[in-house]
Amino acid sequence: MNRPRRHHFVPRFYLEGFCTDDARALAVYDRVRNAYRAQRPTEVAHRRDYYAYEDEQGNLVFAIEEGLGEVEGAASAVIQRVDNEAPLSDDDRLTLATYAAFQFTRTPAYAAWIAAFRQHFAGNVPLEQVAVLPDAPDPAADRGVALGAMLRHAPRFAEVFMQFNWTIWRRESDRQSFVTTDSPVCIFQSERPEPNIYAGAGMLMPGVITALPLSQASVLAMSGIGNRVDNRTLTGDWVRRVNLAVVSQTQHFVFGRDLALVQSLVRATGTDRRQWQVPLQVD
């Protein structure tokens, strides 16, 4: 029988992009324990056999993990190109769109969102319409359902992301850095100045930005229908605004290169004073 493995629902290579250059360590905030610590990327954001499933003989199969590894390997090369300010080809865009889609759908936060979405509609629409909604992927009850939802939904989100205009946000200097979380794809309204208020809106609504920090040096921001790829250098104030929006949507972990920065963002958003809620609220 295959031996159990640690499966990272936030890729290890991705977390390495937010490490300090010298120690290769992350500054981590753990919301469940309300604690700060320094950790290596191999030590956080993993669950045993999270992407494994059993075959008919009861053996663990790691095909999904291997597929995700291929997505991550391709994305790692493209993210390096982004950080080096190289232009993105159509293939690069498809690689990043696919990676962003899996970053969105592979997390425990996404599983909880689907469950809440289905529960809401169960009480507000006819039963025959509820039946066509995705099953609630509750990993605690049935990890197979969660994996199925990830595999079905990620290609659809990749198609949506390819239809957006893209802007690569860059930091102004090496003294600044972006942070990320265990729910790295976040959605917020560009006209709302309050960083701790979730958009409560869909990706396709006007004024809504879907953002994925790529590394401590860059963020992929997607909004509006089109195929433009622009670049924008952010001032220190805007880097902080983006970081506040990202941290406000964390479920369990915040990751950054600097402990003081992570502490400041957590306290400013009140993340240490409130419980996580399903991010997209449906009225």
Give the mean pLDDT: 81
Measured on Cα atoms, how large is the radius of gyration? 18 Å
Beta-strand residue fraction: 15-25%
Level of helix content?
Answer: 25-40%
Total number of β-strand segments?
13
Oligomer: single chain
Which spans have pLDDT < 50 for at least 5 consecutive residues? 127-141, 193-199
Count of DSSP-assigned helices = 8
Estimate the global geometry from the Cα principal axes. globular
Task: Give the helix/strand layout.
Layout: E1 6-8, H1 12-16, E2 26-30, E3 35-39, E4 46-48, E5 53-54, E6 60-61, H2 63-83, H3 90-105, H4 108-122, H5 127-130, H6 143-162, E7 164-171, E8 180-181, E9 186-189, E10 208-215, E11 218-225, E12 229-234, H7 236-247, E13 253-256, H8 259-269
Parallel strand pairs: 7-12
Antiparallel strand pairs: 1-4, 2-3, 2-13, 5-6, 7-11, 8-13, 9-10, 10-11
Helix pairs in contact: 2-3, 3-6, 7-8
What would you note in describing this structure?
This protein has one domain (6-273). The chain has a 5-stranded mixed sheet. A 4-stranded antiparallel sheet has the order 3-2-13-8, with helices on one face. Strands 1-4 form a two-stranded antiparallel sheet. The protein has 8 helices and 13 strands. Helix 2 (63-83) packs across helix 3, helix 3 runs antiparallel to helix 6 and helix 7 (236-247) packs across helix 8 (259-269). The protein has 283 residues and is of the alpha+beta class.
Short recap of the structure:
By secondary structure, the chain is an alpha+beta fold. The chain has 8 helices and 13 strands.
